[in-house]
Amino acid sequence: MSTSPAPHDTDTPLALLGGLSIREFLRDYWQQKPLLIRGAFADFETPLEADELAGLACEDGIEARLVEEHGPDKAWQVSHGPFDDATFARLDAKDDSQWSLLVQAVDHYVPDVAALFEPFTFLPRWRLDDIMISYAPTGGSVGPHLDNYDVFLLQAQGQRHWQLGGMHGDDAEIIDGIDLRILKHFEVTPGEDWVLEPGDMLYVPPRLAHHGVSQSDDCMTISVGFRAPSADEVVTSYADYLGASLPESLRYRDQGMAPVANAGELDDASLERVRELLLSTLDNPAQLAQWFGRYMTQPKYLEQLAAREPALKTHELVEYLEDEGVLVRSLGSRFAFRHGENDTSTLFVDGDGVPAPPALAEALASSERLTAVLLDYTTADLDRKAVVSLLTALVNRGSLILECDLQDEEDEEEDDA
């Protein structure tokens, strides 16, 4: 039984899904109910040690939180990084060990962590959000809480005791005044109470109450989270996107209206006219696709998208690829595509959309190795020159990186160390 699915293989039982096929998991569990998966990753070894996680939490620009059940100022106190040695010295000196360190988007900084996304690509890549890693000594937790998104909780090291408490709606009672969705009341569902060992995994759908408490002093849990924009975010973002392109002349009109009975009344006919204006503007499948591709590929942290210095020239890119060079997707960059008509596609990259040959768009939005073969992915409308120009632009904006540049960075870090 394999861990990772072959492309388009939806009916093979997977250890990753507890012996279920992709089709069965999506039909019976996804966004519906939890699933405990023993041995989802056989012989799993953590890709990051606790000291390395703490080191990330001390760096500027990395989102890290410290949750203390009995904090210096209040219960369930949340502090935000960057932290320092004094922070961890204080924790070591505490009378209790009921605290947790959480670091977001570790996949943006550690390639071995980013590689953990690949087994989950039976789901759309653009739905993947980030990989958070938490560390807690014995007794540490973040309390019984809710999330608004799907998450796979992979035990990386040590043991964690998980309890589930059923689905909750918007009326769930949350403790006020803290930066967490901790429930005032938590009742364990009978039979949904387990201790996870390294390599075990728990799938938790949105709005399912869950509570995980460390059972060891080396407990590390990897959370593979998924993007789930709210209706508010979707409506606001799409309206902003459309509004930027709508002409000033497109306005509310009431030509041919009937005489009004009362000049102060908003009558049904007026409401129907404004409704038609809204619907005719919003109901545009082509525009919706262009907006959604840009929206779902927006970088989690825009400041991480660093332009290349010095900028690469197109002939330099061609020479590099033809000399067996390889392009690498930047950690944290997001790619997606949508095929159109007449052999055209839109490639969505880090919040932008650009025309691209279908084969090129598919390659960039996959985990495929990016070599000189990309230069041959052309169409009648987008020739080799256009492909080279597009790839060069993606390198210069920071969405793609020359593999040799990565090696140079690693060498510099080793020299600094």
Please describe what this structure looks like:
Strand 14 (345-349) and strand 15 (352-356) form a beta hairpin. This protein starts with 21 loop residues before the first helix and ends with a helix. It is an alpha+beta fold and 417 residues long. Helices cover 27% and strands 21% of the residues. The model is unreliable at 1-6 (pLDDT under 50). The radius of gyration is 25 Å and the shape is globular. The strands form four sheets. Strands 1-9-6-11-5-4-2-3 form an eight-stranded antiparallel β-sheet, covered by helices on one side. It has a three-stranded antiparallel β-sheet with strand order 8-7-10, with no helix packed on it. Helix 5 (231-243) crosses helix 7 (285-296) and helix 8 crosses helix 10.
Main β sheet profile: 8 strands, antiparallel
Q: How would you spell out the order of helices and strands?
A: HEHEEHEHEEEEEEEHHHHEEEEHHEH
Question: Which structural class do the helices and strands define?
Answer: alpha+beta
Strand order of the largest sheet: 1-9-6-11-5-4-2-3
Query: Span between N and C termini?
Result: 42 Å
Proportion of beta-strand residues: 15-25%
Radius of gyration: 25 Å
Shape: globular
| Beta-strand segment tally | 16
- Count of DSSP-assigned helices: 11
* Poorly predicted parts: 1-6
